[in-house]
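Z., the sequence and structure:
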Amino acid sequence: MSMVRPSSPPSSPSPPARPVLVLPGYGGSGPGHWQTLWERAHPHFRRVEASDWERPVRAEWVDNLEAAVRASGPDTVLVAHSLACLQVVHWAAVTRLTVRAALLVAPPDPGAPAFPAAAVGFSPLPKGRLPFLSMLVASTDDPYATAAFSEGCARAWGSHFVSIGPAGHINAASGLGAWDEGWRLLESLLG
């Protein structure tokens, strides 16, 4: 018997309708990515755009996040995937603003061979504890980061660590659809 994946996150229960900023990684999140599906299902979710998804520059990405958080306020929740996780930690190291929480999914290792050469300024990574509640979600077979790298980041940033087993880069290519497990993790983060 085949299982059909839902095309949108479960509608009940839902996290409170607080501001949610969606932060896609390198290349942006396409139409089949769980971030995009969550945005479609929840109109209060807002995507933080990049001037160039294919040539990310840390300073620009940090400035974009600063402006978005300033506009949305301190009750904001960040939902970051891949390179955007690095955007969040670099932003947290320099901002005076704060957010309620961050869901950090599949942070890539900027020292790994698979890290995009076009991404500028994301290394070295800040190692300080994040000044807000955070959860780091990783896969055991992510081509962009080892499990040890992900666990080390979670420890350094003070993030609750969740391994979801083999799920690739936890993106559209992983076949997760609206990623119900991730939605439940977001709900638990907001608890």
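The chain has one domain: 20-190. The first helix runs from residue 34 to 41.

Let me know what you think.
H.
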